[in-house]
Amino acid sequence: MSENMEHGVDKTRHMKMHRGVTHTEIEILAALLVAFPQVSRVTFDPEKRMLSMAFLCQGPVSRAKRDQLRSLYLDSMDAYRKLATKDMGIVQCYWETIDKFHCFHVERDVASLSTGELNLTVSLIAGQVELVSDAEDEPFVTEAEFPWSARLLLHEMLERIRELECPRKLVALREGGKVIVFHK
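RE: above sequence
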């Protein structure tokens, strides 16, 4: 049997398809989607050192509501920065229209991103618009209900994102109840 064949899988082909993708990269982005079922997609840009989170809204969102959420998010991040006496590098957000759906995108530099800010962001957006989520039957977990072990794991994942070195953008998304992570 060829040494590149193991359990019926061509290891050379597998390595070419997943060159540069590590289990650590997969774990980090998947953990964010598991921790926050309100987030439909996470993208990590290694060149810009930025994390982008997409929140898919159920149905159309009016122009006024989109403008209101954008302003509320930016004002809230500014207030958070001042209260936490924290310098935030990049804080951006924008809307994308996909057929009859709207998707709210938040982009943050990983160097200054914190678990508290992630919790605030997700709670704020989920409180303003109805989101598509894998946890349809379960109510969203608020920061007060977030168990300390989950907070610790999330904090560790953020630290690992800051140290992440990968050759291309990483994307994690939900599909059919599963989390899929791939290079873009």
